[in-house]
Amino acid sequence: MASSSVPSLMKDEELRNWAELPSELTFSILNRLDAIDILENAQKVCTSWRRVTKDPSMWRKIDMHYLGDMGSMIYDFESMCRHAVDRSQGGLVEIDIWHFGTDDLLNYIADRSSNLRSLRLAMCNQITDEGVTEAFVKLPLLEDLDVSFCAFLGESLRVVGQSCPNLKTLKLNRSPGIDCFLFRPNINAIVIAESMPNLRHIQLFGNEINNTGLNAILDGCPHVEHLDLRKCFNINLVEDIEKRCSERIGVFRRPYDSTADFPFDNIWFLACYSDSDSDSDDADMDDDCDDDSSSSMA
């Protein structure tokens, strides 16, 4: 009996019309997809699925997490993201954008999403200090912010802190040397200390921060429970500051701790490799110049 029932069950599965699933079940299934899959694939399956994807509650969280080659991408991600934001009808609470963020897109989101609680802008190098300053004054309810490997810093971050008093999580992960370029390695740490007193979770992976900046954060952010300083090699955990961190902070990640769980680990090491190559090229050019100068003098 058992063996004869298997083909019957398989036949029932084959004949099932997925378009006739209850809308609540369809919503539950589609809600597990990212925005790109929904807009480019799922909503085109059938009329009933398209109807479900137009429900504003489908767009309370928007995931535009793209890891492919941006140079060969086939989608207009910015237009796609705007369309997803429009479908949220003001109900957007969380959005995740990788690579393609711009000042215009950031302000488009801010203008239509005053209830936004969580924002990730990863590797969005086209976003400027001016764009940040204009957009974040419109996001007073923001609680979680991840701006890993973005170019803006300093005073634009102060505007973020002043405009978003509920901010609890800040992830400001950097590529090697980005803060040192301005010869102000503690600029971000000092701004964080002065404008973001309610932070609980701070991640500063790869920053140029030193002990001065760390002490500023410990003084200005008394509620910090999780502090990640991995790859912050200018930090010197001498007895007093080590004790201060260990006693006050529940989860403390030190500069030389493992990076196995860091989501951008490969990106950081590629940046290091690229930076090393650039330094080597500069050194070779200097050597060539020295050789040319020596030859001309001879």
TrEMBL record:
Pfam families: F-box-like, LRR_6. It comes from the Eukaryota. Residues 276-298 are annotated as: Disordered. Residues 15-62 form the F-box domain. InterPro entries: F-box_dom, Leu-rich_rpt. Transmembrane segments: none annotated. PANTHER family: F-BOX DOMAIN CONTAINING PROTEIN, EXPRESSED, F-BOX PROTEIN SKIP19-RELATED. This is Leucine-rich repeat. It comes from Arabidopsis thaliana x Arabidopsis arenosa.
